[in-house]
Amino acid sequence: MKSKLPSSVETTLGLLTFFAGGLFIIACGFILQTLSGILIPFFVALFLAYLAEPLQKLLIRFRFPTGLRVL
């Protein structure tokens, strides 16, 4: 289907779409870069908490000294 818009308007809209997409990608990268300082330690802490309970039970089972269990 042939567009009824003049070619200059089509070119302008195409360029605006291109640059808007580029800005969106840059913004997403900036947000990920900013949040990585928060998200990476959060997921590491979550992973360590997931490991802590079975490890604690194992140390109790083998009568590991209490002072070392805390470490």
Could you walk me through the main structural features you see in this protein, from its secondary elements to its overall organization?
By secondary structure, the protein is an all-alpha fold. The chain has one domain (7-70). It is 85% helix and 0% strand. It contains two helices and no strands. The chain has helices at residues 7-61, 66-70. The longest helix has 55 residues, at 7-61.
Topology summary:
Blueprint: H1 7-61, H2 66-70
Number of domains: 1
Main sheet: strands, sense, barrel: none
Structural class: mainly alpha
In what range is the share of β-strand residues?
Answer: under 5%
Mean pLDDT: 82
Secondary-structure element order, N to C: HH
Total DSSP E strands: 0
Rounded Rg: 27 Å
Distance between the termini: 71 Å
Q: Name the overall outline.
A: rod-shaped
